[in-house]
């Protein structure tokens, strides 16, 4: 059972890497502009966005499992 958990986490991590790579692969200039704009956003706004994203992920995991 413990091994199955690590296997599932590894699959999730791999899928995250695939999803993270789609935008820079398909639209490198847009991705570069987005990264530049993100550099201008305050730390507080980034933390709030990250928190909301994490909570959305936890809620979706709860719903689908």
Task: Note down, in words, how this protein is organized.
The longest helix has 25 residues, at 2-26. The protein has 65 residues and is an all-alpha fold. It has a domain at 24-65. The relative contact order is 0.06. The protein contains three helices and no strands. The chain is extended, with a radius of gyration of 15 Å. The model has no long low-confidence stretch (mean pLDDT 94).
Characterize the largest beta sheet: strand count, sense, and whether it forms a barrel. Answer: none
Q: Mean pLDDT, as a whole number? A: 94
Count, helices: 3
H/E topology pattern = HHH
Tell me how many strands there are. Answer: 0
Gyration radius, in Å: 15 Å
**Main structural class:** mainly alpha
Q: Provide the β-strand percentage band.
A: under 5%
| End-to-end Cα distance | 17 Å
Name the poorly predicted regions: none
Q: Level of helix content?
A: over 70%
User: Based on CA inertia axes, which overall geometry fits?
Assistant: extended
Brief description of this entry?
The protein is mainly alpha-helical and 65 residues long. It is 91% helix and 0% strand.
Which key phrases capture this entry?
65 residues, mainly alpha, 3 helices, 91% helix, extended, membrane, DUF2065, transmembrane
Topology summary:
Blueprint: H1 2-26, H2 28-39, H3 43-64
Helix pairs in contact: 1-2
């Amino acid at each position: 059972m413990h091994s199955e958990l690590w296997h599932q986490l590894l699959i999730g991590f791999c899928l995250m890497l695939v999803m993270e790579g789609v935008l820079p692969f398909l639209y490198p200039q847009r991705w570069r502009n987005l990264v530049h704009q993100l550099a201008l956003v305050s730390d507080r706004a980034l933390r709030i966005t990250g928190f909301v994203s994490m909570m959305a992920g936890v809620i979706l995991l709860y719903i689908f499992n």
